[in-house]
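Course exercise 7: structure representation. Students receive a sequence record and must write out the corresponding structure in token form. The form below is the worked example handed out in class, using Pyridoxamine 5'-phosphate oxidase (106 residues). Read each field label carefully; the graders check that inputs and outputs are placed in the correct fields and that the protein name is recorded exactly as given.

STUDENT ID: A-19
EXERCISE PROTEIN: Pyridoxamine 5'-phosphate oxidase
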Amino acid sequence: MLDNALRKAAAVWVAPDGHPARLVWALWRDETVLVAVGGTEQEVPGLRDGVACVLTVRSPSTHSHLVDVPVTARLVEVDEDTAAALRTARLNTTPAWESVYRLEVS
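STUDENT ANSWER:
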């Protein structure tokens, strides 16, 4: 269910441990969720490498709640292929992020 939901989701809610959830733009790539934060993208207080989070996915069509999943945020080095995928997926703007995190299912 998570795989299918994330393939269709353009945004997810991320709640780092001890912080409220924030809506962030997301990219499902290579069987993982990538979120770009900072810069012109959403800030997520408390998001850092190794922090436990709750990932919430909602239906892109009905906005109804689909699933909550415990994840761990991992800071990633963005290579050119990943940067290109992030820019391509963000159709309505030219993104300028400070950090990219991979959200690993705990």
